[in-house]
Amino acid sequence: MLPPVDSTMRANTIELVCPAGSLPALKAAVGNGADSVYIGFRDGTNARNFPGLNFDDQEARAAVDYAHKAGKRVFLAINTYPRPRQWDEWCRAVDRAAALGVDALILADPGLMHYAATHHPELRLHLSVQGSATNHEAIAFYARQFAIRRVVLPRVLSLSQVQQVIDKTEVPVEVFGFGSLCIMVEGRCALSSYVTGKSPNAAGVCSPAEAVRWEESNNIRRTRLNGVLIDQFAPLEQAGYPTICKGRYEVNENVFYALEEPTSLNVLDILPELVRTGVAALKVEGRQRSPAYVAQVTRVLREALDSCLADPDNYLPKSHWMAELDKVAEGSCHTLGAYHRPWQ
Amino acid sequence: MKLSLGPLPYFWDRETVMDFYHRLVDTPVDIVYLGEVICAKRRALRPEDWLELADTLRAGGKEVVLSTLALIEAESELSALRRVCENGQFRVEANDMAAVNMLTGAAPFVAGPHINTYNAATLELLAECGAFRWVMPVEQGREVLEALQQGRPADMQTEVFVFGRLPLAFSARCFTARAHNLPKDQCEFRCGDYPDGMPLATREQQDFLTLNGIQVQSAGTCNLVRELPVLAELGVSVVRVSPQSRHMSAIIDVFARVVDGRLQPEVAAHALEAYTQGGPCDGYWHGGAGMSWRGQPEPRAYPASAGSGKADTGADR
Lengths: 344, 317
Description:
heterodimer, A: alpha/beta, TIM Barrel, 2 domains, 12 helices, 15 strands, B: alpha/beta, 8-stranded parallel barrel, 10 helices
């Protein structure tokens, strides 16, 4: 089926937005074809608050300088929800980001958006995926209140629903193209805090490392989160990190992945369709991953996007792209997730 | 403090729902939240049916609020939401920013528990948009409540979830359908077979979660009955209990009597044990893991009230 002309017109450029948890990762993203790189400060102000990851002010300055010299943009995520005692620190993070001259701030908390819009009106604001905006009316709220310039859609919409959103909003839309798959509406998931006390919303972390235990006895490996058995593995099974939504549980006397298998999102199979919806940007998940991951994924997605944009009608994902991405994917396999209706 | 009954999270047949709410008229609950909040496919009651129930409950002296979907993905869902927001008779509980946007400047509303209100600036913004009440997200505890109560916008009412299974997550995927190897679009409404959701246990048979269509709830029941005196001291306006298929009138009765000071919280806690699904939990309130259970009130100077304290039936004294 041929797309409507205006969708094809809109598809001439799509920004590739890649993650960086360190300066080497940022260089890997820039060197392999990212248009923009997103980073976070080394604290709980962002949703990938892991030990040894992210940027202090000096590193962030170096990151912005490096990317700008290469003609690329840097976005900074301050996308957790500050509680009252954290409020001042989160506001200072916004001030620091403004001083660094980042190209956009990725925010989720409405109160913090208000602070940023009031104190730094020149700053470009993106609504984080943690902002849970899954429809054009919710997006309109943030556009009206804070003049957001982009929205990152939660990974819960089908392809046709993405199209509906884009048709009804003036705000450019960014969607996820590759990476670990949150199957819950981001910003609305308290599973991690239910078990550990720490959640992506409040602490910037899902399944915090200090709550994780790996056990082995009688050749069975078990993964626990704050004592709760998330999964157990036979000798030849690949054991995954104990994320609650990727565990095996008992429901109606069956043991299975009751929520989701350990798998990664990968949209290469539907790239032309996604491009025709008129998305402005394609995002790669994984600020917690290595520079090698960032390099590999960025390179493949750049090649795929270029190929698709040049000739969407004859685009076919190359098998070596898929193989390379599966190598770095969670569970070594991939899914279209909610984009593909039967997944739901 | 007033007592509210939150929206029904489960899918019951029409007759059961009608019966459930008609019985509420004679209970001491002050506020009733009505409507489907989980899945737009659940249509055992038509919008007119909900409005008819709302009329009945209002005639019975209850404040009625119409609750709205937490996850809105389709244009059809937005149209339905708009009709609720423009109903013109009853206040609306917004559970998504789409509803907040529709209600801003149009009608006073309740910012529901699925709106992420984590700080004073967000609460102030919601007040400016027209919120007259906010429901604290379940992940928050006493520390946040204390801080937000101090600088609360004028006339803003605060509501706290004090009893029921915790709403923990929403997904595009229907987990009930998945457990039956059915796609969501052909779900056969299997969630209707589980009046209190599908239990999910770990491989060590630990009760863990509850699957309710696209929602994941806790397996245990949040119970803050021992904290009601603290909540009252902090100026909380409304405490919310969440619907379950059994013992609802008894639960409402116990909470109403504690709110009125006619029943000691400790006695109430024992009475509620018989009505609690799964184990109890109160961890979020104490700033820890939501599933944990302290079962003790925060240290405070609470005067021991008169009464035997030995009753475990929750009987009036």
